[in-house]
Amino acid sequence: MQTRIDEIADGIYRFSTHVPDIGPTGFTFNQFLVDADEPLLFHTGLRALFPLVSDTVGSVVALDKLRWITFGHLEADESGSMNEWLAAAPNSQVAHPFMGCMVSINDLADREPRPLGQNEVIDLGGKQVRNIDTPHVPHGWDAHVLYEETTATLLCGDLLSQIGNGPPVTSDDIFEAAMQTEDMFQPTCFTPNTAQTIRALAELRPATLAIMHGSSYNGDCGKILLELAEDCERRRSASA
Ligand SMILES: [Fe+2]
Ligand SMILES: [Fe+2]
Predict the structure, then answer these.
(1) The CATH number of the domain where 190 resides is what?
(2) Which of 49, 51, 47, 43 lies closest to 78 in space, CA to CA?
(3) CA atoms of 116 and 95, how far apart (whole Å)
(4) Which of 35, 100, 117, 124 could tie 11 with a disulfide, CB 3.0–4.6 Å?
(5) Can you give the residue range of the structural domain that contains 48?
(6) Ligand 2 ion: residues within 5 Å (CB)
(7) What digits encode the pLDDT tens for the residues 75-132?
(8) Cα–ligand 1 centroid distance for 72 (angstroms)
(9) Of the ligands numbered here, which is closest to the C-alpha atom of 136?
(10) Number of domains in the chain
């Protein structure tokens, strides 16, 4: 396996590892680096992939410069190698929503995390990320996304995940592929708040969606998020 590197927006790097034996066409695990005075990593990746991924990230930014370790929610592919990163990047700290710190990360992380409030902005120096709590969207009590405001990039984690090994970033419609992936793995937790939470993300009108599995998207991001919100409503009423 190899981890490929692509710059999907100005100073936003995607590190993608395609694991061929998951699902019919394999599955990618992507990390994102926001390159700034205080570089930030979104998703740590699986522990098994840490040697490969950390080597590749280290070719873009020296690991002792890495300042922030972040992830969408507590889960092996999102946060599994959190402590390996804390050890390899001695100046880094985990930043995670207040609730997630209280419930899990205060105990699990080898160094004290920085709790993030709803809408709190971290100024990275040249880039700035806004924390948006999205509890249970698409899953996980502690779930959140980050919005990098200078490039309008929404680091949206598992939302709109696709199987296979598509291009690093596309403006082609990925909605059908994302819905097939939803049907296959059924990762989303449909609650009364799911659609409304996704609609609030659509209102940001992002220029790019940095997606954890599959291609990133730089088409009409507001529109595809609204389609996703509608689909969530459909699925919720169908199950009721
Ligand atoms: Fe997840
Ligand atoms: Fe994931």
Answers:
(1) 3.60.15.10
(2) 43
(3) 7
(4) 35
(5) 3-239
(6) 77, 158, 212
(7) 999 999 999 999 999 999 999 999 999 999 999 999 999 999 999 999 999 999 999 9
(8) 7
(9) 1
(10) 1
